[in-house]
């Protein structure tokens, strides 16, 4: 392990190489904490200033570490931006994949997933707006965005195929349907919360959740003639 002139130990070159290549996997506890602090500082700077206005100096000053320490864990500003994108975009899709509550109806499960997804997006709307905008500009961010979108869509597809096998869900192409349903939520969240380009604000959360749930529910289930959260006869495993 290398030692600085003032006696403080820093992560060795081999460990730093692993940090670049494996998103920090395999780091010592101390090195992992330093990397985490850098990530937290970068997330705060990107949220406040945006990617274009944030510098490595801004990140290390906020973190309280030397500039050289940054380069032990990240190659450059874009590298840490990509790592932040992976974390925040991954969290968005995980929020919608939370385990259902016991004895939920189909409607309630869809409604809870939509609310969790949109609430997470609202909480991180500036960051998500940055990541989704730069996904069109920085190839590595675009790759992360596609990976997370596809993982989200595959979960929808698996659930839909399972319900189709049991004769619960409507017969339709499960791949196309999954991209259509997931994309509806995804792009509405982006236009509504990040771009603020639709004629309603965050106070409309309940109405947006209800409307998205109606669209999803009536698209998927052939017996969805009831307009609202009243179909409670379905078994909780459906």
Report on this structure.
The chain is mainly alpha-helical and 238 residues long. The chain has helices at 13-21, 29-49, 56-63, 67-73, 77-95, 106-123, 125-134, 139-165, 174-194, 205-220. It is elongated, with a radius of gyration of 21 Å. It has two domains: 13-75, Orthogonal Bundle (Arc Repressor Mutant, subunit A), CATH 1.10.10; 83-220, Tetracycline Repressor, domain 2 (Orthogonal Bundle), CATH 1.10.357.10. Helix 5 (77-95) packs parallel to helix 8.
Range of helix content:
55-70%
- CATH C-level of the largest domain: Mainly Alpha
Instruction: Report the end-to-end length measured between terminal Cα atoms.
Output: 55 Å
The whole-number mean of residue pLDDT values reads 85
Number of discrete helical segments: 10
Number of domains: 2
General shape: elongated
One letter per element, helices H and strands E, the order comes to HHHHHHHHHH
Let me know the CATH homologous superfamily of the largest domain.
Tetracycline Repressor, domain 2
Second rung of CATH, namely the architecture of the largest domain: Orthogonal Bundle
